[in-house]
Design goal:
The chain has 257 residues and is α/β, with parallel strands linked by helices. It has seven helices and twelve strands. The longest helix is centred in the middle third of the chain and has 16 residues. The structure holds adenosine-5'-diphosphate and magnesium ion.
């Protein structure tokens, strides 16, 4: 079975409105898949449901990660199993520094992988890895001691998310609309981070409205997502076609009143 498998996934809001209407998708290690769709098509809803956000209810279908059914698992349990989501709108956590946040996140994963017993990373090892990754991803050292996302620019938030991904080494990275509002330099860092990490240990799902980030990460598979469903799948050339033709050919024609 592929690393991540979605089987007829349906997702509704808490008021019962169905947003994701039956998605089948398999993403394996070594693969980058892109989901591209217009605003409001349900892309972020799909991402939140994958992560186990309680406001997004899976009404039908299953999510498999590493051959384990994680559909009923809570967000932290999915994270411990190696699912990672880079949010479209990362939240600030005042009072928690980037460094302490990263250390807690790593230790939570280590604890879960150690059968529930504490197995904290040694501070010198943590420091060494953190500094190396920060240099590699061009995250300024000054950011490490600041409160997470508090007053960060869009580019800084994204760099710190990629830093988090590099430190946590997830199995499956889901990046929701990571290109919006990023300058080219930040986009390169994000794309470079994803490209370096995708391999025999990791796969990635890049969710985006724009084709821009795909100029820096060439996806192996592209899926067009309209009105809660995948309506077409293809290779990287499909993203180019979307850049030219937009989503209009896939959307239902407006019926005049
Ligand atoms: N928490 C929420 N509360 C109310 N409506 C929501 C919520 N999340 C998503 N929606 C609605 O679901 C639809 C899909 O939104 P979203 O998943 O954000 O789409 P996309 O990411 O493709 O732009 C929209 O109509 C949006 O208003
Ligand atoms: Mg979105």
């Amino acid at each position: 079975m592929a690393l991540l498998k979605l089987e007829n996934l349906h997702v509704a809001l808490e008021d019962g409105t169905e947003i994701v209407k039956g998605v089948d998708l398999e993403v394996d290690v070594n693969e980058v898949h892109a989901i591209m769709g217009p605003n409001g098509s349900g892309k972020s809803t799909l991402a939140y449901a994958l992560m186990g956000h309680p406001a997004y209810v899976i009404t039908e279908g299953r999510i498999w990660l590493d051959s384990e059914d994680v559909t009923e698992l809570a967000a932290d349990e999915r994270a411990q199993r190696g699912l990672f989501l880079a949010f479209q709108y990362p939240h600030a956590i005042p009072g928690v520094t980037v460094t302490s946040f990263l250390r807690s996140a790593i230790n939570a994963v280590r604890k879960a992988r150690n059968g529930g017993a504490d197995d904290p990373i040694a501070i010198p090892e943590f420091r060494k890895t953190l500094l190396a990754q920060m240099d590699r991803l061009k995250v300024s050292r000054e950011l490490a001691s600041r409160y997470l996302n508090d007053g960060f620019s869009g580019g800084e938030k994204k760099r710190v998310e990629i830093l988090q991904m590099a430190m946590l080494k997830p199995r499956m990275a889901v990046l929701d609309e990571t290109d919006s509002g990023l300058d080219i330099d930040a986009l390169r860092v994000v794309a470079g981070g994803v490209k370096e990490l995708v391999g025999p240990e990791m796969g990635a799902l890049v969710i985006t409205h724009y084709q821009r980030i795909l100029d820096y990460i060439t996806p192996d598979h592209v899926h067009v997502f309209v009105d809660g469903k995948i309506v077409e799948s293809g290779g990287a050339e499909l993203a180019k076609k979307l850049e030219k033709g937009g989503y209009a050919p896939y959307e239902p024609e407006e019926v005049p009143a």
